[in-house]
């Protein structure tokens, strides 16, 4: 198939460090190329891909001193619109931005919604564009918008050889990986580790928008002797970081749509201890790949049982459920259905 992948411009594809959406777009794009499809990636010019790259801006917007991030995305959408007839399917990763310009163009397209959907201002958007085909990344994510035209839920996937267990690493600490923000609750991870009597390593990005929160709430806690703030880490650093952890702590305080760090830990055979919010109960198999808990007390207790879980089994379940070929194959099924029919039956992920 001739497939267009249209990525956000905030980060390169793949991003050098943090960047969940752009990372997934990269995994999907590269796997589609390996499957023999003719893929064009619309992204920032510093992206790296085996597909054909069309650059809407020279570098990731994160690296540029710009005040209006919407303007480059308007250029991106127009670039795609002008060549849309050259593709069998257009796959957007830009939330609702493409809806007004593509819903009546006559070219098959779909949008994967990567972010939170429980914001009240989204309701009129999806009331107005209720026929636009969309994909959810968890069943939990779609609940606030039952009126949307959900084609299916497709879980994120990682290349099987991207992150692998390092068997020579001794599990000595607990890990927190991702982004410092109020809803990610790094402060609770610090409390859980302290109460469990274990050292904690925080490998996390601090966005400019969260700098004040970091300085006022997290930085004072990082000075405690059991806490080590590592900062952002790359994919190359993740296997050692995650393999050396007794468990990954995921004490979120919001309805996380997916949580890529959970399957990154599973890829390394590392158990996940996560609060029961959002997609967690769909991703973590309680008692198999980790433990699902309700609060700090539950997390502390689960840490005491983390070493009873089989790391080889955790890795095997990752390969069965969250490998990139599984993700790509399910998208190809949706592309084929959209390209050959004007309607698709909604489905839920299994």
Proportion of residues in β-strands: 15-25%
Shape: globular
- How much helix is in the residues? 25-40%
* Contiguous runs where pLDDT drops below 50 for at least 5 residues: 342-347
Detailed description of the structure:
It contains 12 helices and 13 strands. It is α/β, with parallel strands linked by helices and 350 residues long. The chain has 2 domains: 173 residues, Rossmann fold (3-Layer(aba) Sandwich); 149 residues, Glycogen Phosphorylase B (Rossmann fold, 3-Layer(aba) Sandwich). Strands 3-2-1-4-5-6-7 form a 7-stranded parallel β-sheet. Strand 1, helix 1 and strand 2 form a beta-alpha-beta unit. Helix 1 crosses helix 12 and helix 5 crosses helix 10. The longest helix has 17 residues. It is globular and about 60 Å long. One of its GO terms (molecular function) is glycosyltransferase activity. Keywords: Transferase. InterPro entries: Glyco_trans_1 (IPR001296), Glyco_trans_4-like_N (IPR028098).
Set down the secondary structure blueprint:
Layout: E1 2-6, H1 20-34, E2 38-43, E3 52-55, H2 70-83, E4 89-92, H3 99-102, E5 109-113, H4 122-128, E6 133-136, E7 149-153, E8 173-179, H5 186-196, E9 200-205, H6 211-222, E10 227-229, H7 238-243, E11 245-250, H8 260-267, E12 272-275, H9 280-283, E13 290-293, H10 296-303, H11 311-321, H12 324-340
Parallel strand pairs: 1-2, 1-4, 2-3, 4-5, 5-6, 6-7, 8-9, 8-11, 9-10, 11-12, 12-13
Helix pairs in contact: 1-12, 5-10
GO molecular function: glycosyltransferase activity
Domain Glycosyltransferase subfamily 4-like N-terminal: 18-118
Keywords: Transferase
């Amino acid at each position: 198939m001739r497939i267009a992948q249209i990525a956000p411009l905030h980060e390169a594809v793949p991003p050098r460090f943090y960047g969940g959406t752009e990372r997934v777009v990269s995994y999907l794009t590269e796997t589609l190329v390996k499957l023999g499809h003719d893929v064009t990636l619309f992204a920032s010019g510093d992206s790296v891909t085996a597909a054909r790259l069309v650059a809407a801006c020279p570098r990731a917007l994160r690296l540029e001193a710009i005040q209006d991030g919407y303007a480059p995305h308007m250029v991106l959408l127009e670039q795609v619109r002008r060549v849309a007839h050259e593709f069998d399917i257009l796959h957007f990763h830009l939330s609702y931005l493409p809806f007004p310009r593509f819903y009546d163009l006559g070219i098959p397209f779909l949008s994967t919604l990567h972010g939170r959907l429980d914001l009240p201002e989204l309701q009129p958007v999806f009331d107005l564009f209720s026929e636009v085909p969309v994909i959810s990344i968890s069943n939990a994510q779609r609940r606030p918008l039952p009126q949307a035209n959900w084609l299916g839920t497709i879980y994120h996937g990682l290349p099987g050889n991207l992150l692998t267990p390092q068997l020579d690493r001794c599990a000595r600490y607990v890990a927190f990986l991702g982004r410092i923000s109020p809803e990610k609750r790094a402060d609770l991870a610090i409390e859980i580790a302290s109460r469990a009597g274990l050292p904690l390593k925080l490998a996390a990005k601090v966005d400019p928008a969260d700098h004040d929160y970091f300085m006022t709430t997290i930085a004072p806690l990082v000075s405690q002797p059991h806490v080590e703030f590592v900062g952002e880490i790359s994919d190359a650093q993740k296997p050692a970081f995650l393999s050396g952890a007794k468990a990954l702590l995921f004490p979120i305080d919001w309805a996380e749509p997916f949580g890529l760090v959970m399957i990154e830990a599973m890829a390394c055979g590392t158990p996940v201890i996560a609060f029961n919010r959002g997609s967690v109960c769909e991703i973590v198999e309680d008692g198999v790949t980790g433990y699902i808990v309700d609060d700090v007390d539950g997390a502390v207790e689960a840490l005491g049982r983390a070493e009873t879980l089989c790391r080889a089994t955790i890795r095997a379940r990752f390969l069965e459920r969250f490998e990139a070929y599984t993700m790509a194959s399910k998208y190809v099924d949706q592309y084929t259905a959209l390209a050959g029919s004007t309607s698709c039956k909604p489905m839920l992920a299994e």
